[in-house]
């Protein structure tokens, strides 16, 4: 059975995440200790105890989610569960690249903190945001964004699953797009709890800064096939990894296409590795025939190990 590991992005964080893995598995404890040492502050305490307001800040949420995901990844490996392929949603792509050996965890945790900082700095606080449009297809949402652009920048940026497209942009343009979406038959427009219009062209300055930082990071060719957000296709060289990570900051996340690429390649089972179950929820809307399980604590780990034993 062909198995994919998929890794969550920002928005999946919650206070207490990773704590039980830390307490139960030495390899998870070492992962949190490595993150704390690399960053120079106790990220582990922020994950376990909050406060939630601090954890939600982009500069903290990104390294925190990565750390929990890699801790879960390492526990799974210890249990003999290894993927055939990997992908990650936005920030989660860094977790996938760590899983593939393209970059070290120590480098990844530092770079995603800087990525979070650059993304937050690109647009003044309150000047932009993101919104999930429910009940419309991608071409319709893209046309709505085009029509709303007379009020400012607004773009379709997370192409998540049928009937769920996230848009990002300047506040007035987002509001205009929401009005147009409802007129076109959208069920709802749901503002996301993020502080900037991620993956939109407004993030170009963040991409430029990230490019300079990535030049200093030692990369390797992925030892495991990884599907990239920008292309919804496999990335094979370290040069391509760096180029696509830069583009990813200001380009749409083609998640539905990425999942369909993996399924077309023979993947029959997915494990969401890290906090939350968002990606399994999206996958159920893309294809109900494949299995998707999540691993974020010892209880979910045991369930997954039992399911894998059952399906052989």
UniProtKB/TrEMBL annotation:
It catalyses: holo-[ACP] + malonyl-CoA = malonyl-[ACP] + CoA. Residues 6-310 form the Malonyl-CoA:ACP transacylase (MAT) domain. Keywords: Acyltransferase, Transferase. It comes from the Bacteria. One of its GO terms (cellular component) is cytosol. GO terms for molecular function: [acyl-carrier-protein] S-malonyltransferase activity. GO terms for biological process: fatty acid biosynthetic process. The active site is at 90, 199. Belongs to the fabD family. This is Malonyl CoA-acyl carrier protein transacylase.
């Amino acid at each position: 059975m062909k198995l994919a590991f998929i890794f969550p992005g920002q928005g999946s964080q919650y206070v207490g995440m990773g704590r039980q893995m830390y307490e139960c598995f030495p390899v998870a404890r070492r992962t949190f200790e490595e993150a704390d040492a690399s960053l120079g502050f106790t990220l582990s305490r922020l994950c376990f105890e909050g406060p939630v307001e601090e954890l939600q800040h982009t500069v903290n949420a990104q390294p925190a989610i990565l750390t929990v995901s890699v801790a879960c990844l390492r526990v799974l490996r210890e249990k003999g569960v290894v993927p055939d392929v990997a992908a990650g949603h936005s920030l989660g792509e860094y977790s996938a690249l760590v899983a593939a050996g393209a970059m070290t965890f120590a480098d990844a945790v530092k770079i995603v903190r800087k990525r979070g900082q650059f993304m937050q700095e690109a647009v003044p606080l309150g000047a932009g945001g993101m919104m999930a449009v429910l009940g419309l297809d991608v071409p319709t949402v893209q046309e709505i964004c085009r029509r709303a652009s007379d009020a400012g920048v607004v773009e379709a940026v997370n192409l998540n699953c049928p009937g769920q497209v996230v848009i990002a942009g300047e506040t007035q343009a987002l509001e205009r797009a929401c009005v147009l979406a409802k007129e076109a038959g959208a069920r709802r427009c749901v503002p996301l709890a993020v502080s900037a219009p991620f993956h939109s062209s407004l993030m170009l300055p963040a991409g430029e800064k990230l490019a300079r930082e990535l030049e200093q990071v030692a990369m390797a060719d992925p030892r495991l096939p990884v599907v990239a957000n920008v292309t919804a296709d496999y990335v094979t060289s370290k040069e391509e990894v760096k180029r696509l990570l830069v583009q990813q900051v200001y380009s749409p996340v083609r998640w539905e296409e990425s999942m369909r690429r993996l399924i077309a390649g023979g993947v029959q089972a997915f494990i969401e590795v890290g906090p939350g179950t968002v990606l399994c929820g999206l996958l159920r809307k893309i294809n109900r025939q494949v299995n998707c399980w999540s691993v974020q604590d010892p209880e979910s780990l045991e369930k997954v190990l039992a399911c894998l034993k059952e399906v052989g």
